[in-house]
Write a structure and sequence with these properties.
The structure is a single chain. By secondary structure, the chain is of the alpha+beta class. It folds into three domains: 4-115, no CATH class; 128-256, Rossmann fold, CATH 3.40.50; 264-340, Alpha-Beta Plaits. It contains eleven helices and 16 strands. The strands form three sheets. Strands 6, 7, 8, 9, 10 and 11 form a six-stranded mixed beta sheet that branches. Strands 1, 2, 3, 4 and 5 form a five-stranded antiparallel beta sheet that branches. The N and C termini lie far apart (62 Å). Mean pLDDT is 89; it is low at 1-18.
């Protein structure tokens, strides 16, 4: 019996970390088969595996993702499955087509990571501003429209959506200079952040001469260049390089923003609310935060209540996760205050 199968998987591009459910994008299914029921089941199982692997890959660093990936099975995926929605389903003779969307219980997945000491992230990184210095024997191009790296990215930015390109205007040339790359220090760090509204900066230095043909990539830590990758660029394959460095910088970002499951901390915080309705809203948002282990009431008053909050991971990650959920948390002389943004 011959079976002809054709199906398209739409890659997942939106990760809703702030919600208790994770929804995949829609997948289009189209195939011909003499056994539609079994073929459909097989394809849907493959889609579930694919979408689930995309989900956990986005949450875990590469090392931990590979550790859990080898144990993924249909039963394992189904244990986190919340719903499988099939729409526009058509069966004409031996032809089948439909769209499906899958949702997973994100809260249950995070609990699994915590219970099994997997470290994870709870929010997606913002895009990375990419600064490229193309240094050859015959020319040097930094923030220039003639820079071949920028030319490639401009023509293919849809395939490298994690990057933000500089404006390459006249003022950019004074923000970042060759001197910055030679000294390994971003002297106008604050101005760069202000202009592009981004803390995530990736610096690329391509060296090409008689002895060298490689790319050095850096992240920024307190204005200082931090080497994260060295890449042989002899083949001049721009697509391959940018796919590579996108994974490297994302994994680097994850390492710096991980929730450490084995680390538990406790803070005593004032919650400032204008009324009971606002207090209720703040408390709901706190309880929905997946890295909160426990909340206990220490003192209640009309406009200022005090709570003991126990959470997983480091304080700076807690602050960022609260900000993602529209809560401002600040510390002044060890006094913690919480209010709506």
């Amino acid at each position: 019996m011959k079976i002809f199968i054709f199906f398209i998987l739409i890659s997942i591009s939106k990760i809703c970390f702030s919600k208790n459910l994770y929804y995949s994008n829609f997948y289009d299914i189209n195939f011909k088969s003499n056994d539609i029921k079994n073929t459909k089941e097989e394809i849907i199982n493959n889609i579930k595996l694919n979408s689930f692997e995309n989900l956990i890959e986005s949450i875990l660093v590469e090392k931990e993702y590979k550790k859990i990936q080898k144990n993924i099975s249909n039963d394992f995926v189904n244990s986190f499955l919340f719903s499988l929605n099939i729409s526009e389903e058509k069966i004409i003779n031996n032809k089948y087509s439909s769209k499906i969307q899958i949702s997973y219980d994100y809260e249950k997945l995070i609990k699994f990571f915590i219970d099994n000491n997997y470290n994870f992230i709870v929010y997606k990184p913002e895009k990375f501003l990419i600064i490229i210095f193309d240094q050859n024997l015959s020319y040097e191009k930094l923030l220039s429209k003639d820079n071949l790296f920028y030319e490639y990215l401009n023509n293919n930015i849809d395939h490298h959506s994690e990057f933000v390109l500089p404006k390459l205007d006249f003022n950019d040339r004074y923000l970042i200079t060759k001197k910055d790359f030679l000294e390994k220090k971003l002297n106008n760090h604050n101005q760069v952040i202000s202009k592009y509204n981004s803390d995530n900066i990736l610096l690329i230095h391509y060296k090409n001469n008689s002895d060298e043909n490689y790319i050095l990539s850096y992240s920024i830590e307190d204005e200082i260049f931090n080497l994260i990758d060295k890449y042989d660029f002899s083949n001049k394959d721009y697509k391959k390089f940018f796919n590579h460095i996108e994974k490297v910088i994302t994994n680097e970002w994850k390492q710096n923003n991980l929730v450490i499951s084995s680390t538990i901390n406790k803070i005593n915080c004032e919650i400032n609310a204008l009324n009971l309705k606002e207090l209720k809203k703040i408390k709901e948002l706190i309880y929905k935060n997946l890295i909160i282990k426990n909340v206990e009431t220490a003192k209640i008053s009309l406009k200022k209540s005090i709570y003991d909050i126990t959470y997983y991971g480091k304080q700076n990650i807690l602050v960022k996760s609260f900000n993602q959920n529209k809560i401002n948390i600040s510390f002044n002389n060890d006094v913690c205050k919480i209010k709506l943004i």
